[in-house]
# Entry
Amino acid sequence: MPLHSAAYYRRLASDALEKAGVAEPPVPLDAVAARFGVPVRMVSLPSFFSGAAVNEDGLPVLLVNVQRGEEHQRRTLAHLIGHLLLVLEDPAATYPRDSAVEHRDAELVAAELVLPESLVRDQALKWFNDHRYLARLFGVTEGEMTDRMQELGIIKQRGILWDY
# Structure
């Protein structure tokens, strides 16, 4: 399996969002999966189980546990879509992909699916960097939104970067 940069995985997610026509938050992850012809089923599973990609009649189906919180469900679905996109991008890839490296790659894709840079920047500008409101808007925790905004340089470790 070839090595790729984090930018490569972010591009995979951005391309998927563009193909799905996503222009506003929150990202409709089920619509992104549907764009690739993969159904999402919300099912009741034991609480320790987040979700899975399963084979049904030769085609993938993404299962997400409804017993987990909404933010966790979104993160799980994004991770599963990350695996899907990785398999679609690499003709030699197979599923399941069990190595820690492959899960890390799926997480990089998932992070961009849930909090895409272009949407976060656009909405932060519109809502004056209100991380609490933005977290609710994107369906993530306040900590996740703060971390993403710091990563993008929208806010600093202490205080807001007012550049407009």
Summary: The mean pLDDT is 90.
